[in-house]
Write a structure and sequence with these properties.
With 320 residues, the protein is of the alpha/beta class. The chain folds into two domains: 3-138 and 256-302, Rossmann fold (3-Layer(aba) Sandwich), CATH 3.40.50.450; 142-252, Phosphofructokinase domain (Rossmann fold, 3-Layer(aba) Sandwich). It has eleven helices and eleven strands. It has helices spanning 16-29, 40-46, 79-91, 103-114, 139-160, 175-183, 198-210, 227-235, 258-276, 296-302, 310-318; strands at residues 3-8, 33-37, 49-52, 96-101, 119-123, 163-168, 188-190, 216-221, 242-246, 282-287, 290-295. Strands 3-2-1-4-5-10-11 form a seven-stranded mixed β-sheet, with helices on both faces. It has a four-stranded parallel β-sheet with strand order 7-8-6-9, with helices on both faces. It is elongated and about 70 Å long. Substrate binds at residues 125-127, 162, 169-171, 222, 243, 249-252. It is found in: Cytoplasm. Its cofactor is Mg(2+). The active site is at residue 127.
C-alpha cells in the first residue's frame, strides 16, 4: 500500500490532531504518500482532499480540535454516498483510510470496508463510549477541563453555602461524570447507568448541612436529564439553594493532555502498520495498557460500552 488518507469525523476531541500527525509521520516513514480529507465524510464525497507533508503536521500535536475539520454527514449512511466516497478515493489513487471519531465514524468505516476499501478506526470522542477500549482520544483532556471548573465552583459554593449541579457532557455514557465526580470530591454522581432517587439525594444534602457541610457538588451526566430539570425536581424536596452550571462545549476544547497525545500517537502509528499489512475493518483500542484490535462489526453490533461502575461505588463510600 503506497497511498493512504486520514479524516476526522463527528464531534471534535483533543488529541485528534496528534493522531493525524502520527498517521502522516508514520506513513511517510514507511514510504507512503498520505492525504488529508477535510470535513469528514462530507469532504470525502466532495473530493476535498489534499496531500499532507511533514510540515503540514508540524506543531499540531499540542493543538486541540482538528485541523482537518469535521462535519456531520448522515447521507453517508446510504450506499450512494458510500460509492461516491470510494469514487473520490480511487480518483486520488488512495488505497487505505484511517477514520478518527466515534461510533458514527466507525459505521462509515464499516461500510467502506464492506465495499472492499480497507479502513481502520481510531476512537476519538470525549464521551469515552466506544466499546473495545478503556479510553478514547480526548477523554483525559475533557475530564481535566471539567475538574478545573469543579474546583473553582467549589470555592463559590462554599462561600454561599449552596448546592451546585454541574451538568457535564457524555451523551448517553456516564464516564465523564464518574471520573470528575471522584476526582473532584463530589457529594453525588448522577449517571444514566445507575438509577437514583431524588428524595435520597435531597436527604443526603440535608444530612450534610446538619453535620456542618458548607456546600454540595452534584455531577450530572447530560444523558440523565438537563441540569435545570434536575434542579426543578430537587426543589420539590426543599430549598437547597441550588445553582446550575452547564459546562457545555468547553469540554471539547483545549490543548490535549500528555496521556491523550501519547494515546493518539500510538493509535495513529498502529493504524498505518495495519493498512501496510492490507488489513481493514478494524477499530483500535487500549485494554489494560495494551493495544487491541476489534472488528467494526463486533464493536458496533455485539459489544456494549460500560463505564467503570466501581468508581460509582467508591464515591458513595468516600463522599459521605
Amino acid at each position: 500500500m503506497k497511498r493512504i488518507a486520514v479524516l476526522t469525523s463527528g464531534g471534535d476531541a483533543p488529541g485528534m490532531n496528534a493522531a493525524v500527525r502520527a498517521v502522516v509521520r508514520k506513513g511517510l516513514y514507511e514510504g507512503m504518500e498520505v492525504y488529508g480529507i477535510n470535513y469528514g465524510y462530507a469532504g470525502l464525497v466532495a473530493g476535498d482532499i489534499r496531500k499532507l507533508t511533514r510540515r503540514d503536521v508540524g506543531d499540531k500535536i499540542s493543538r486541540g480540535g482538528t485541523f482537518l475539520y469535521s462535519a456531520r454527514y448522515p447521507e453517508f449512511a446510504s450506499e450512494e454516498g458510500q460509492l461516491k466516497g470510494i469514487e473520490q478515493l480511487e480518483k486520488f489513487g488512495i488505497e487505505g483510510l484511517v477514520v478518527i471519531g466515534g461510533d458514527g465514524s466507525y459505521r462509515g468505516g464499516l461500510a467502506l470496508t464492506k465495499h472492499g476499501f480497507p479502513t481502520i478506526g481510531l476512537p476519538g470522542t470525549i464521551d469515552n463510549d466506544i466499546p473495545g477500549t478503556d479510553f478514547c482520544i480526548g477523554f483525559d483532556t475533557a475530564i481535566n477541563t471539567v475538574l478545573d471548573s469543579v474546583d473553582k465552583i467549589r470555592d463559590t459554593a462554599t462561600s454561599h453555602v449552596r448546592t451546585f449541579i454541574v451538568e457535564v457532557m457524555g451523551r448517553n455514557a456516564g464516564d465523564i461524570a464518574l471520573w470528575t465526580g471522584v476526582a473532584g470530591g463530589a457529594e453525588q454522581i448522577i449517571i444514566p447507568e445507575k438509577e437514583f432517587n431524588m428524595a435520597e439525594v435531597a436527604d443526603t444534602i440535608q444530612k450534610g448541612r446538619e453535620r456542618g457541610k458548607k456546600h454540595s457538588i452534584i455531577i450530572l451526566a447530560e444523558g440523565v436529564m438537563s441540569g435545570n430539570d434536575f434542579a426543578k425536581e430537587l426543589a420539590e424536596f426543599g430549598d437547597h439553594h441550588a445553582r446550575v452550571t452547564v459546562l457545555g462545549h468547553v469540554q471539547r476544547g483545549g490543548s490535549p493532555t500528555a496521556r491523550d497525545r501519547v494515546l493518539a500517537s500510538i493509535f495513529g502509528a498502529k493504524a498505518v502498520d495495519l493498512l501496510k499489512e492490507g488489513k481493514g475493518g478494524l477499530g483500535l483500542g487500549m485494554i489494560g495498557n495494551k493495544i487491541a484490535e476489534n472488528n467494526f462489526e463486533e464493536i458496533l453490533n455485539n459489544q456494549k460500552h460500560l463505564p467503570d461502575l466501581s468508581l460509582y461505588k467508591l464515591n458513595q463510600e468516600i463522599s459521605y
